[in-house]
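request received
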Amino acid sequence: VWLFLHPELLATYHYNQYVIAVTHLFVLGWILSIIMGAMYQLVPVALETRLYSERLAWWHFAFHVAGFIGMVCMFRVWNMKQVGHFGSGLAFGVGLFIYNIGRTLRRIPKWNVTATAVTAALCWIAFTVTAGLSLAIAKCTYESTQGLAAAGGVRTFVGGLRSVAGFMSRFDAISAMHAHAHLGAVGLFMMLLVGVSYKLIPMFALSEIQNKARAGWSIGLLNIGVAGSFLTILLRSPWKCAFTLILIAALAIYGFELAAILRARKRQALDWGIRYFLTAIGLLIPVAGLAGVLSWPALPLNLFTGQLENAYGFLGLIGVVSLAIIGMLYKIIPFLVWFRRYSPHVGRAQVPSLADLYSHRLQGLGYWAFLSGIAVTSVAIVFSNAIGVRTGCGILMLAVTTLMINAITMLNHLFKPRLKPFTIGAANVSKAA
Amino acid sequence: MNHLTETEILDTLRQVIDPELGCNIVDLGLVYSVSIEDDKVRVVMTLTTPGCPMHDSIRWGAQNALLGLEGVEAAEVEVVWDPPWHPSMMTEFGRAATGVGSF
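response:
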């Protein structure tokens, strides 16, 4: 809605407070909230163990929500000191998340490629948050430590912040911002997308990993590419191109393995949830093409390049990550609703299947609307066309509306369950109680 | 005198579905064996994947369905992973219902 009302945000260069505010709203409020919530559900399932602490997850949720809302509001008015304060709250929540998932990982009976990817993602989110806080610190002006008690903790703390700010001043602000954003987008989001799909796609399509070494290589190269890209983007090094190629190679290997998994699947029909996810993976091709262009050392720094950067971020975060998330949401929400409402009734009454909980027609409409919206908005961004951006975002709003209607339909089962009596057999279920 | 038959037990278990695949556990080939001793029934079954989040729901569901059958006073449902489930264990009906190809 924000982009629909202010399409110029994507039709002009992105280094301004409003783009940064809307990006953090989108990344922290939508993507990260969903991903972290899904990880609390899926990591124990995917790795056949139990979550270490549900209570810690609730505390994390409180810090996360308060932190990101405050950050977005403060970015909008460009009060970086308050961004730092709210960001510290968010970072504390992330710390709880890392500890909780980390302890969960220690319980898993058998280490595999998904566990490796989740562990790597935890490391990269820690680095991403640290880099983000360092950026905020670099933009603050701290009061002099003169007058504070010589050995006071506050004096030491403020001195530390000033040291960080001094260190960050060695790097140019735009490169540091790009490095921070890229680290989060690829190190956390892509890493999880790739790693978790090695478990979920075989599970949903009734298949299995075809080549464990190939899957391992994709995760390994992704890690090398993430680390190298962060440093080379930060330092504006021409070697950025080499690490982009490593990332592309990692994703190509992933694509080969995913194709092999799908070829070996026993369940021929792919539902809309899987189609959303696979289309998102397919959109990695134009994203990788843009990454190759943008990392080219001789690329001129002009307005068109800036728009290509906007398109890269838009396609990556909305085209790839969000579409994949929506696909997985169509798997996760029905499961959670079904589990809560219908699980106790299995064997006592006829219960619906997961696919019966929502409208497939709306799912299909949402799919095509999303793809159309992505295409229109991306082209409009490249050509700095605000009307096109508004049109594309309007179509995307239609797609989001279909998701929301389906989500409400699914959640409605919590209040109005659809149970039917068995058609055969006696209903003497009192003995089961 | 109990007249329970394996067919009756399997028909009852057909009321229990795997909600992800939208098919009952018998036609999915998840039920490995059924044994009947007087008014006690024992079922050995598996699930499509280890760590399946529906593990407890399906096992309890099978037990509930059996206890709902007239003449059954005790029901035991054991979930095993050996032999691992494979789609080739599905019936023709199960394959048609889930979109799984033939073998």
